[in-house]
Amino acid sequence: MNATPDPETPVDAAFLRRWLDTATSAVDREAAMLTELDSPIGDADHGTNMRRGFLAARTAVEQEPPQTPGGVLVLVGRTLISTVGGASGPLYGTLLRRAGKNLGEEQAVSAARLRDALRAGVDGVATLGGAVPDDKTMLDALLPALDALTAALDAGGSAADAFAAAAAAAEDGARATIPLRARKGRASYLGERSIGHQDPGATSSALLMAALADTAKEAV
Ligand code: ADP
Ligand code: MG
Prior knowledge:
- This protein is an all-alpha fold.
- Helices cover 68% and strands 2% of the residues.
- It has one domain: Serine Threonine Protein Phosphatase 5, Tetratricopeptide repeat (Alpha Horseshoe).
- The site of adenosine-5'-diphosphate (ADP) has 24 residues, from helix 2, helix 4, helix 5 and helix 8.
């Protein structure tokens, strides 16, 4: 059913719908792990929040599939904002809605164009949440992922290799939150006691980037 993707502009609505399917499966599979991470430094709901939000987003996209990549991201973002109670809902919702709006009405875009849109979305997360690098938040996975994506694309790598590099950087970034002291969100209430635990939001960001890498590997 899927048309062969153009290697120059591999990111179309079908690509992002496949990303959403892969991401939703990953979040569903790893929900218990995400909630476990949110137990010692949070309120043990991150997996539940993400699962509820992504299942609702997948249903919304299945019911009325948007025809543009921007449309898919806006609908996922809007659904996360309306279905996830925790801090992560508005933050991820802002990221994806902002990225989708940045893509506008384009039918298919390059990996570099998606990277620019994601950068705009991540800037929105930073503005909304007020976090900076090393505050032990999702930004500690998202920012290194964007940097790795940029470096790989600038070096002339394929979209698939660039998204794989981004996913690896996100995972490294999530792991690197372990020794950090949280300065934003619920975990910050624990002060020094937040040290020694991996941030749940950085971990879910790594899952979402891994889903993007998996999607790109299959598509291009
Ligand atoms: P809540 O903290 O409301 O229970 P979740 O458990 O779903 O929400 O999400 C917690 C995650 O949200 C944290 O692990 C962190 O990565 C992210 N987060 C919280 N506050 C911020 C913020 N101000 N900026 C960026 N990310 C944040
Ligand atoms: Mg929580």
